[in-house]
Specification:
255 residues; alpha/beta; four-stranded parallel sheet; two-stranded antiparallel sheet; 42% helix
Length: 255
Amino acid sequence: MRSIFELCVPRQEVLKGELSEDIFAARLKDVITGDADPIYKDPDIFFENTYPTAGLKTLIKDVVSRLTGNGFGTNAVLRLETAFGGGKTHNLIALYHIARGKITNPAIKKFISPDLRLPGSGEVSIAGIVGSDLEPEIGINHPTENIRTHTLWGELAFQLGGSKGFKIVESSDEKKVAPGTGFLEEIIGDEPTLIMIDEIARHLRTAKAIKVETEQSTLADQTVAFLMALLEFASSKVKCVVVLTLARETDAFGH
């Protein structure tokens, strides 16, 4: 049997001693805003350097089938649950690139079955929210629109509907009181929509400290109520998919 030293050739950055461990810290937000390293930001480079695991291929098939209207039997809500460092964010980045419809590298064929139609450019509306980026007090600043979002629903409305979409839930965002599904119907309707929520447990830990006096509850309670409404809405639509990442019970935010 040949040894691993004969069968494997390290990448050039490894051989040159130029590999930075920071490159392994993938962040969904940076990919969406275009601030990530090219290995994550560029879809062609990303899939060239990603191994097509069985789990990732199944995830892509389930999500794409539903977004393109061919997944009537697939789930509207998908939960990715692994320990920290288990590849959840990497999977979300893969879904983001595929939903954008701008992949030209033939390497994508390793990830999909021949009969699976990928979405075209601009066909799918996409929202990607990272729990650790949500800021209940200061808010997430969107300077181009002079808007600050303070809640999960406020950020979701802005990402999917811009300033016009945010206007619908601005009062609910300011008061930190969960809205119903009416605004989702206005913003999303029956259009193909991918909603990714990463590391929501981190946000809930912070949100527990934010009191909502009008409802005698906390922002964490309101966020859970909104999540339930969001999942019910997605389940009622043919082309809407929500992908959630959750930590295991043994992780820091498992409880």
